[in-house]
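notes to self, project folder thing:

trying the whole complex as one job this time. last attempt i did each chain seperately and stitching them together was a nightmare. six parts in total, labels are on each line so i dont mix them up again. if this works i'll redo the older ones the same way
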Amino acid sequence: MTPMTPTTQIPDRYERGLARLREIDGEAGEQVVAGLADIAPDFARYLIEFPFGDIYSRPGLDLRSREIAVVAALTALGNAAPQLKVHIQGALNVGVTREEVVETIMQMAVYAGFPAALNGLAAAKDVFAREAAG
Amino acid sequence: MTPMTPTTQIPDRYERGLARLREIDGEAGEQVVAGLADIAPDFARYLIEFPFGDIYSRPGLDLRSREIAVVAALTALGNAAPQLKVHIQGALNVGVTREEVVETIMQMAVYAGFPAALNGLAAAKDVFAREAAG
Amino acid sequence: MTPMTPTTQIPDRYERGLARLREIDGEAGEQVVAGLADIAPDFARYLIEFPFGDIYSRPGLDLRSREIAVVAALTALGNAAPQLKVHIQGALNVGVTREEVVETIMQMAVYAGFPAALNGLAAAKDVFAREAAG
Amino acid sequence: MTPMTPTTQIPDRYERGLARLREIDGEAGEQVVAGLADIAPDFARYLIEFPFGDIYSRPGLDLRSREIAVVAALTALGNAAPQLKVHIQGALNVGVTREEVVETIMQMAVYAGFPAALNGLAAAKDVFAREAAG
Amino acid sequence: MTPMTPTTQIPDRYERGLARLREIDGEAGEQVVAGLADIAPDFARYLIEFPFGDIYSRPGLDLRSREIAVVAALTALGNAAPQLKVHIQGALNVGVTREEVVETIMQMAVYAGFPAALNGLAAAKDVFAREAAG
Amino acid sequence: MTPMTPTTQIPDRYERGLARLREIDGEAGEQVVAGLADIAPDFARYLIEFPFGDIYSRPGLDLRSREIAVVAALTALGNAAPQLKVHIQGALNVGVTREEVVETIMQMAVYAGFPAALNGLAAAKDVFAREAAG
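result (full assembly):
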């Protein structure tokens, strides 16, 4: 995990977003950006600028809560497995514990059904195993 | 708001769930239960026992984070407006600030699109106005 | 409710579909068709021909099971309240009991979450009340 | 398939649920439970207790209809392929015919679109092939 | 409808976005922005800057096609009725004909089911009626 | 790509649909039909007759716009990856440019979130690569 810089104070959206992306998603975030280079390079820029430069850089909600919200939403939607894994790792990167990740996903059984929670738990298991291996 | 009892220590699922439901959802929760009386009374019992007696009573994730997760998920799913409003109020009841509710909903623009976030903000506006009026 | 004609034996798709639509959805079905007259009359025809003339007229699954499947799916999707109500009435029209409708919807709590089931039960309550009143 | 015990009469939720899970989902159900052991063992218990011990053990809707409802809903949602396969097998286990499974999935083309139905049919094909092979 | 200015050439994201928003969504767009003033003013700014200043201002896809894509997507998702209406009007504002709007929505019956298309057509009927009245 | 025949003038739904399917989806469409032969042959017929014989054969919206609408909707729904790929290729087959496909998918970030758009772009990348290789 990258050492935290006070990203909310970097004036430029792109620079601020890139720092935030690295802080939260680490290598996985940079791979997403790299993967866009030959098909939609502008979209990589938007991804850095709007979600990370604008939204994730706002005060008013701590990063831990933001990542819990994202893990919850992606588990509930159930149609974006790669991004769910990136954000389970992202949650761990910003200090959410494994237990909290698991509790967040289990809670989704109530709001989006058991299959959504089961698939979310399978994603978490995969991320935890990769982290232990790496 | 009901004064908090250490609900996690109530041994009976139903009693524990009912206390938790009152703590989180307040009157709105009791209205949901009452509304089920003539069509599916057992479902009212399940609602108290499983989500509130089992899930919300678990240690391992604080109530504030649980409600942030639920507001995020219901905003992202975008198909359960009444429950979203109950849980925006529920989030406020357990100590999430209005600003944090708004930030959580705004974050969903990134993960579920601007319409989902706009409809979530409209729900929040409605809940905040009713709270101010009541 | 219209007396049943052996619709599966009507050779013409449109005629067969219209008879099937009346048998299942009754007046509500005819209102849907009428409501399309000035905006998309061809779509009214497709609605009669494909879902009702083709699919609902197939042997291999009885009408009761078809309506249970549709009530389940529309409850789970949670984004088509008017059609869910039409098909709760449709289920009753083809012999599904109120208790079976309620059980089908409650089952969806497991697969699509409690909010989906709660909104499905509210739709059923509304249909049952209108039926009692009418 | 496990010989049926009158599961609705087992007083304990967990025992009743476990018997029901085995009756419906067979080995696949036990694998799901086993897969949760190291990441969320409590969730395995909830899965047995609430869906199977509470919901599937209710009178008022026969098991065949419950499985038709679940196959319909998971086909329509389209975001839980592993669970759809488990429940296609589950439907067969409780006496739904292959033809009825296929009809249920085809019906979803009307309510959730052709892609949902096509992916549901691909899942059924896979389950039928595995059953024939096993 | 506002007379078109070559919005892609306005250098500032906010100014460019605001011009684009007015061109596409007209009054309805400004009302959305105004409605955010007291709950999430920054979100109004993001809405202008990212969707309209960045995305809608890109060359490479004409505005008519962009609005057809949005009407299709919101019809298919089926959970954002207010935004669907704004964009049906938006499509008309940028030169999509009523017939093309209706065809786009009907096409969604194939990809998201008949209920989604029926609810989309009801939204279109409403927008067309209001336009005729206004 | 098959040479175009004026498919809208073929009187028979099945023949007209088959010609349309070949024109739009090419080999991939025929593979879908072939894959249904042993599990649901009637569904293959419906697929040809209703979506292609009825809907895609209508005047009132050009094929390019229809495919843009479908790529948008399937990207937004995010739960039908195989069909999204077929229709990205289909869009190219009827004259939509790669740039227009990419713009359509990017636009979905606004209406269904960044994960939906990212997964849509990954699908496009895959289709473009296969086309270049083939």
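what i see at first glance: Chain D is about 75% helix and 0% strand.
need to look closer tmrw
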